[in-house]
């Protein structure tokens, strides 16, 4: 028996139920039916195939209750709930959805197993989940979208699949402008109805780039630098704390926060070329 | 040109923005969970903080913007503030606006201008956070209108009593211009809370600011005043600003207040606000003159009560857990929900700073160290 499931939250939960019934099954995952067919052809596996999660039914909540029960996990009150846990985990660059299904079934409804980090795999997956959560928070903190050509857009470079999450966050913050988050060759667009697209859609990055290129840069960067410098209190300089809250890796997400970080490292120069005039 | 702008030189928008933002750099929260921007010194600057104008009719003895002082005067129009706020907000550099001002003519006119800014922003669909520092003596009808738009607003108390206040802010009356406004603010917030009940809409809380060290008042007096304001005016958050003598002001020869004093007072206010302690519970922390030392007040309090420790993580009451250094209200709540805790690793996971808590706790009866040996090691 082969359980073929979609690598989505619902697909993983449905695969858990199927795998619980038949623990000896092979697990194969894919993002859509086309990819699944390709995988099956390539592997040459033959047998009865139970395909789950490819027809979305939007019942993740009830599936979650079926698998994890209704009671709140002991250690999860400060971590995301199990549904969110699975969602974040699937976005990790190294996540193996089949391994996740096995872990969830192994926990057998005991959600504390997911959070306690006692087993080697549980610990690794818990850390994956935290890494994705942190990467998302860092994006919210350090990405600096630009309003160009009537679209608020930003290019991100993250190994995890969180562009859509960040796009939704930007949409919540800016409900009145179209928003685009570009990652590699694709872009997530929010409030797309304002420019004749679907409200939330995945399109090619080149389309957004063509919109952006019609407009020149504004002077917000310069204004921000002035404001940022004006907030400096030299007697309260605390480089240790500043570096902690503005880590080098995250600050390089945008030119603006990169410059801010440079000032953290070097301080703000007191003398300029004008001083020599 | 308005009367309050007569002394202004011809300055560009950037220059005015710089001058007026610098006027608010001491207004910092010193605590934030997620900030979109941090200053070069590590302080959070998640808001666009600015004065509407630094021209001021007031003669506050400590203030660099007092009317008699020679300084570069500038102001921003409401539309200019709105434009800058939008630019930063769209760029995801800020989450909102913090707007204060010098008194442009009188409190009523200044508050009207502040109201213009908020109405403009909200009218343009701005959904970010707005904090307005209203002027002492602002009329009630304006407070009501500001309450409709601002997330947070309040008047600065600056000091603990009317005698001190009249000494540093001679143009205003403590009882009428400050305390009465704090009371109105409380009433307005309560009204908003009942109106928005169940609608999931955020309602701000009353807050105020104290200038620490401008007049000789002890930390004990400040903390008692904060506690009184919490009881009487539902004050949620006091802010403290260390006094720094400014040249050409009546207090130019005063001594600057040490920066750590501001930090310790914030910690004391958190003990009142988040830990449910009363100001009388904290009397043991002060020296004989009523001042704090440069040490974590909660640690000092815990060391002064060695008979209360160790507390057992798995059986202690919430109120006892809260007294342990390294355990805050959130981690105490998590401990209660996550019991039984079996290891320090689990404690660490729930957010406890184990290295600080270790001398004061036991886990199912076993301890890593005891308080007296810890104090000995420290000394």
Automatic annotation (TrEMBL), chain A:
Q: Name one Pfam family in it.
A: DUF4130
User: InterPro entries from the xrefs?
Assistant: DUF4130 (IPR025404)
Domain of life of the organism encoding this protein: Archaea
Q: Which residues form the DUF4130 domain?
A: 124-248
Q: What is this protein called?
A: DUF4130 domain-containing protein
Source organism of this protein record: Methanococcoides alaskense
TrEMBL record, chain B:
Q: Residue ranges of the Radical SAM core domain?
A: 37-278
Q: Which PROSITE patterns match?
A: RADICAL_SAM
GO terms of molecular function:
catalytic activity; DNA binding; iron-sulfur cluster binding; metal ion binding
Could you list this entry's UniProt keywords, alphabetically sorted.
DNA-binding, Iron, Iron-sulfur, Metal-binding, S-adenosyl-L-methionine
The family database entries (Pfam families) matched by this protein are listed as: HHH_3 (PF12836)
Give the InterPro entries listed for this entry.
Aldolase_TIM (IPR013785), DNA_rSAM_put (IPR023874), rSAM (IPR007197), rSAM_sf (IPR058240), RuvA_2-like (IPR010994)
The name this protein goes by in its record: DNA-binding helix-hairpin-helix protein
Specify the species.
Methanococcoides alaskense
């Amino acid at each position: 028996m082969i359980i073929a499931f979609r690598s989505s939250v619902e697909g993983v939960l449905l695969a858990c139920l199927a795998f619980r019934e038949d623990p000896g099954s092979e697990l194969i995952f894919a993002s859509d039916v086309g990819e699944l067919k390709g995988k099956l052809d390539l592997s040459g596996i033959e047998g009865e195939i139970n395909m789950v999660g490819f027809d979305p039914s939007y019942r993740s909540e009830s599936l979650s209750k079926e698998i994890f029960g209704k009671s709140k996990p002991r250690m999860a009150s400060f971590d995301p709930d199990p549904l969110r846990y699975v969602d974040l985990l699937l976005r990790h660059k190294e996540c193996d959805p089949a391994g996740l299904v096995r872990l969830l079934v192994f926990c057998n409804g005991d959600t504390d197993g997911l959070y306690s980090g006692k087993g080697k795999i549980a610990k690794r997956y818990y850390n994956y989940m935290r890494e994705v959560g942190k990467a998302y928070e860092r994006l919210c903190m350090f990405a600096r979208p630009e309003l160009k050509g009537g679209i608020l857009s930003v290019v991100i470079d993250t190994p995890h699949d969180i562009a859509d999450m960040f796009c939704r966050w930007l949409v919540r913050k800016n409900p009145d402008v179209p928003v685009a988050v570009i990652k590699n060759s694709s872009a997530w667009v929010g409030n797309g109805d304002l420019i004749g697209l679907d409200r939330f859609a995945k399109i090619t990055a080149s389309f957004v780039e063509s919109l952006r290129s019609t407009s020149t840069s504004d002077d917000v960067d310069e204004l921000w630098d002035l404001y940022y410098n004006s907030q400096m209190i030299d007697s309260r300089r605390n480089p240790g704390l500043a570096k902690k809250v503005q880590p080098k890796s995250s600050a390089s997400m945008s030119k603006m926060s990169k410059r801010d970080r440079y000032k953290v490292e070097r301080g703000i120069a007191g003398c300029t070329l004008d001083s020599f005039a | 040109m308005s009367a309050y702008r007569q002394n202004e030189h011809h300055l560009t928008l950037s220059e005015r923005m710089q001058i007026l933002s610098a006027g608010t750099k001491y207004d910092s929260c010193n605590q934030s969970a997620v900030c979109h921007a941090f200053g070069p010194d590590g302080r959070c600057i998640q808001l666009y903080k600015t004065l509407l104008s630094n021209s001021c009719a007031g003669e506050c003895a400590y203030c660099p913007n007092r009317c008699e002082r020679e300084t570069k005067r500038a102001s921003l129009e409401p539309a200019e503030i709105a434009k800058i706020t939008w630019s930063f907000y769209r760029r995801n550099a800020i989450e909102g606006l913090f707007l204060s001002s010098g008194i442009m003519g009188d409190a009523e006119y200044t508050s009207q201008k502040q109201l213009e800014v908020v109405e403009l922003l909200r009218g343009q669909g701005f959904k970010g956070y707005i904090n307005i520092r209203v002027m002492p003596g602002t009329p009630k009808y304006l407070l009501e209108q500001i309450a409709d738009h601002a997330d947070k607003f309040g008047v600065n108390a600056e000091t603990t009593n009317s005698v001190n206040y009249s000494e540093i802010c001679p143009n205003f009356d403590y009882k009428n211009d400050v305390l009465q406004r704090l009371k109105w603010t409380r009433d307005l917030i309560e009204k908003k809370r009942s109106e928005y009940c169940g609608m999931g809409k955020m309602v701000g809380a009353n807050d105020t600011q104290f200038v620490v060290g401008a007049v000789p008042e002890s930390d004990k007096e400040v903390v008692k005043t904060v506690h009184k304001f919490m009881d009487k005016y539902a004050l949620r958050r006091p802010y403290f600003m260390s006094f720094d003598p400014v040249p050409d002001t009546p207090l130019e020869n005063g001594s600057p207040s040490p920066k750590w004093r501001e930090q310790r007072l914030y910690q004391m206010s958190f003990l009142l606000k988040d830990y449910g302690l009363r100001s009388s519970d904290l009397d043991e922390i002060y020296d004989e003159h009523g001042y704090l030392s440069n040490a974590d007040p909660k640690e000092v309090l815990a060391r002064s009560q060695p008979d209360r420790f160790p507390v057992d993580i798995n059986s202690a009451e919430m109120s006892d857990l809260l007294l342990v250094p390294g355990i805050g209200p959130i981690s105490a709540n998590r401990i209660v929900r996550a019991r039984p805790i079996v290891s320090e690793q689990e404690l660490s996971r729930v957010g406890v700073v184990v290295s600080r808590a270790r001398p004061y706790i036991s886990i199912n009866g076993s301890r890593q160290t005891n308080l007296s040996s810890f104090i000995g090691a420290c000394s």
